[in-house]
TrEMBL record:
This is UTP18 small subunit processome component. It comes from the Eukaryota. Residues 161-170, 246-255 have a biased composition (Acidic residues). It comes from Rattus norvegicus (Rat). Residues 1-109, 154-178, 227-255 are annotated as: Disordered. The gene is Utp18. One of its GO terms (biological process) is rRNA processing. It is found in: Nucleus, Nucleolus.
Length: 595
């Protein structure tokens, strides 16, 4: 009986001749047989059961038989022979192996196990230990590792849901009631609003000299929202900020890094607090006078300013902010000028006196001075106050006994008259020239329709006993009313047209004497208020915050004296005012680039 043979790949030689059965089953010549029959191992049977294409791939490995021996690593403590023998796995070849007991899947698993063992022998012990700690003990089943990795991936996807649950739990905790409440906190603490100048600006009326902490907190929130134009997104409760990992923020960062230059741009709106301005040379420096200035006005189309006074002269100056050269002076004999004004197109200058009913019209194109001695239908003995409509169609003359007379600007003929109760203190046109606002001496304001010359509304100026001045903004948003007590009420123009008792948006209480002059700048961002009763009594109010600029006039520097008249240039770049000392002071507002 022959000893059992191993399938380690050695070549055996036998004296037995190959039987016909050997050739019939397709074994190569020289295959050892016993008793005239082929001796087949388990691997040989599996090889015969393989498909032809797979059998050709594994043919070279089966012919090689044994694997080559590996050299032992230094310090491993084993000889090369032992390492080679440990890497070889011998399968016993029984005398008769059942072909149906071995499948192709088992053969494939055997080959994978053999390759894995070969790779394991090449790895250091530290690396094998680290893999075992990370992946676990998966020597016997590699599919277990794949299942473990898939389960860990699903756990990562589910972590976002867990974080949302945690966020909801935190929100629920934040909404719980406090465990302990201090009784002293429930007592309302009164805050004095008059001792702090910042709190004083937040007062709406004199009755709010003292407020509770809760009301002060609400007032601060209102001021903040008014300055910000609403509640910002980051201040909304429950709002979630975007993280830097969002796709939109990453795209914005990429765009930011792809270009260079100045990324900080100036705001188009005028900031409140401090007004950047420069004191220029007086507009009438080339024609000095000591007589009181009665009118200062900028030309609507040219870089020219007009200055007139009680010295019977009307002077035109070119505005450059440095020398302001004189263009022309017109002398009106025995005619101390009460008011002078440009026409809407800037081609004419109208002037009235304090003791005459004559209206002088100076034609700037022809260079002629035309006196209008009598207006047909007008019975006024003295004509002083007048207004020119913004569209240049009408001329409004304020008479005595509460009468207002509407004239045609082109022909200087009377169109119609309107009457109020009491005396007229001031009048102005709306920005579209469709309405007339008339302030009376008893604190009432009348609103007239120009086309029908009928009163469409009448309201009482809040807190006013005697009105002195009135002005309408260029954009048709505000109406400002100045009273004898020094208070300026700023109204929304729509409320003045619809309500009989409108509430002012803000009451400016920075003056203590009668407000005699009001002027809006062209962008409706500044309201100038002044009183001729006191020196340095002029303030510039920022809109829409309705706060006063703190740097004008300059503290402890008496340069303005008693302001008689004020005006802004057509695009807001210059601000001029005339005083009783005969100076037409000129200021450059740096926020506005144009004249």
């Amino acid at each position: 009986m022959l000893p059992p043979r191993s399938c380690a790949g050695k070549n055996f030689h036998s004296s037995h001749a190959a039987s016909p059965y050997t050739r019939k089953i397709g074994l190569p010549r020289g295959t050892p047989t016993r008793g005239g029959a082929a001796e087949l191992s388990g691997s040989d049977v599996a090889h015969l059961r393989m498909p032809p294409e797979r059998r050709s791939r594994t043919k070279g490995d089966r012919r090689a038989g044994a694997m080559p021996r590996r050299k032992a690593r230094p310090g491993s403590g084993s000889t090369p022979g032992k390492a080679a023998r440990s890497s070889q796995r011998t399968l016993p070849a029984g005398p008769k192996a059942a072909p149906s007991a071995i499948s192709a899947a088992e053969e494939e698993s055997r080959l994978r196990q053999r390759n894995r063992l070969m790779l394991e022998n090449d790895k250091p012990a530290a690396e094998r230990c680290l893999e075992q700690l990370v992946f676990g003990d998966v020597e016997d089943d590699e599919d277990a590792l794949l299942r473990r990795l898939r389960s860990s991936r699903g756990h990562l996807h589910g972590s976002s849901d867990d974080s949302e649950v945690e966020d909801e739990a935190v929100d629920n905790l934040s909404q719980k009631k406090p465990v302990w409440v201090d009784e002293d906190d429930e007592d309302e603490e009164i805050v004095d609003m008059m001792n702090n100048r910042f709190r004083k600006d937040m007062m709406k009326n004199a009755s709010e000299s003292k407020l509770s902490k809760d009301k002060l907190q609400k007032r601060l929130k209102e001021e903040f929202q008014h300055a910000m134009g609403g509640v910002p997104d980051w201040a909304e409760p429950g709002s979630k900020r975007k993280t830097s990992s969002d796709d939109e923020s990453e795209e914005d960062e990429d765009d930011l890094l792809q270009r260079t230059g100045n990324f900080i741009s100036t705001s188009t709106s005028l900031p409140r607090g401090i007004l950047k301005m420069k004191n220029c040379r007086p507009a009438n420096a080339e024609r000095p006078t000591t007589a009181r200035i009665s009118s200062v006005q900028f030309h609507p189309g040219a870089q020219v300013v007009m200055v007139s006074g009680v010295d019977h002269a009307i002077s035109l100056f070119q505005v450059d902010g440095k020398t302001n050269p004189k263009i022309q002076s017109i002398y009106l004999e025995k005619f101390p000028i009460f008011k002078a004004c440009f026409s809407a197109n800037g081609e004419e200058v109208l002037a009235t006196s304090m003791h005459s009913k004559v209206i002088y019209v100076y034609d700037m194109i022809a260079g002629k001075l035309i006196p209008v001695h009598q207006v047909r239908g007008l019975k006024e003995k003295i004509v002083k106050r007048f207004e020119v409509s913004p569209d240049g169609s009408f001329l409004l003359i304020s008479g005595i006994a509460g009468f207002s007379h509407l004239l045609s600007m082109k022909t200087k003929e009377l169109i119609g008259s309107m009457k109020i109760n009491g005396r007229i203190s001031a009048s102005t046109f709306s920005s579209d020239s469709k309405r007339i606002y008339t302030s009376s001496g008893n604190g009432e304001v009348y609103v007239w329709d120009v086309n029908s010359r009928k009163c469409i509304n009448r309201f009482l100026d809040e807190g006013s006993l005697y009105g002195l001045s009135i002005a309408a903004s260029k954009n048709g948003q505000y109406v400002a009313c100045g009273s004898k007590s020094g208070v300026v009420n700023i109204y929304n123009q729509d409320s003045c047209l619809q309500q009989t008792n409108p509430k002012p948006i803000k009451a400016i209480m920075n003056l203590v004497t009668g407000v005699t002059s009001l002027a809006f700048n062209p962008t409706t961002e500044i309201l100038a208020v002044a009183s001729r009763k006191m020196k340095e009594a002029v303030r510039l109010v920022h809109l829409p915050s309705c706060t006063v600029f703190s740097n004008f006039p300059v503290y402890k520097k008496s340069t303005l004296s008693r302001v008689q008249t004020m005006d802004f240039s057509p695009r807001g770049g210059y601000f001029a005012l005339g005083n009783e000392q005969g100076k037409a002071l000129l200021y450059r507002l740096h926020h506005y680039s144009d004249f």
